[in-house]
What we know:
Rossmann fold, Alpha-D-Glucose-1,6-Bisphosphate, Chain A, domain 4, 2 domains, 19 strands
Amino acid sequence: xxxxxxxxxxxxxxxxxxxxxxxxxxxxxxxxxxxxxxxxxxxxxxxxxxxxxxxxxxxxxxxxxxxxxxxxxxxxxxxxxxxxxxxxxxxxxxxxxxxxxxxxxxxxxxxxxxxxxxxxxxxxxxxxxxxxxxxxxxxxxxxxxxxxxxxxxxxxxxxxxxxxxxxxxxxxxxxxxxxxxxxxxxxxxxxxxxxxxxxxxxxxxxxxxxxxxxxxxxxxxxxxxxxxxxxxxxxxxxxxxxxxxxxxxxxxxxxxxxxxxxxxxxxxxxxxxxxxxxxxxxxxxxxxxxxxxxxxxxxxxxxxxxxxxxxxxxxxxxxxxxxxxxxxxxxxxxxxxxxxxxxxxxxxxxxxxxxxxxxxxxxxxxxxxxxxxxxxxxxxxxxxxxxxxxxxxxxxxxxxxxxxxxxxxxxxxxxxxxxxxxxxxxxxxxxxxxxxxxxxxxxxxxxxxxxxxxxxxxxxxxxxxxxxxxxxxxxxxxxxxxxxxxx
Length: 487
């Protein structure tokens, strides 16, 4: 079959692509920038995957995407966009996509949505339901799979539960922790997405998908604590407003405020399966919640997190169009702090590997306390802080998040890593590492570049510049040493 996959760089899309690549299908992946998806060894038959760049918001899709397709997956969401914009964005994208579907030979469109059985839906769930209605208006039969929260390494819901339980022995929590939910393991989600494809029994139908248990959010957190052997106490209070709840999640967990706000607004709704027809059509042993936790933590421990919600541009502050344009550090109107360090040619691979491992649990090779304080300051002023960490402790791809930076360029052939700051700043900041070499030696060039915005930006640069002397010389020194120095 010929399969078109949208949202291929998203949390679900990356995992589905990995499974699809093991089949004999021809796969077309719709991406906003092809550099964000490496077709490497984790895909069984990468030669059968074709990347197509398209913007679902503005592009004339029927003139860009292939029309001769059999199955189409619609996995595009905008939950992390602002609360006032995401519904309009999702409506626009769905309408654009319907125009495309009506020009194709597709036999089925599969959409992953949220459970919408409550009468008073949140804006997020209302938007998902409206998208479903729009997609169903096309000539292509629609299959909608409605899921509650997804439990898997890198999923936003799992990461929030993990953050809360790991960090807080005692929680004074909002009343939504008593809301009922039917969590589902990521492996079961992928199984349903694959099994319903091309099966006429699922055409023009919607199905609720969930795990075997109905739990409150409190029960899910306590189960995680039990899984980790932690003693935790959770006290529910009725005084937390949605805004206060959003701030609570934002400061304690690695989530962005936009995503926290969207999640909190949805947590007032019970998300429990009512339509269980899919269990009769596709009977299989469901993964229970404790097993899902075990599998997720196993992937994290073994450093095999295939995808993460943090990889989405909306988990930070920059727009993806900015990413596509700014692959070179600007030269004019900028302050530059440049450091260099020579090292033996035979150590190039070692130095590059250390650069590619920077941030997250590996740290920044210098003044860990100062980096932590900068992350806390950023979080206080509404930034992303340091809690996002990394998707993988060694691997980097363009678009990955590293703490409060975003990877713009990760080119091992050029030995160049370029990061753009997503912290709150009165201007724009870049951090670049590049290895140069001649016949006698190699040189690590590290550049911190800041383009100020107005007088405040210039004052900021002069205020933080003294700290550069404590941080940046140590980074180039420690990166080029044979062993990682402890500072």
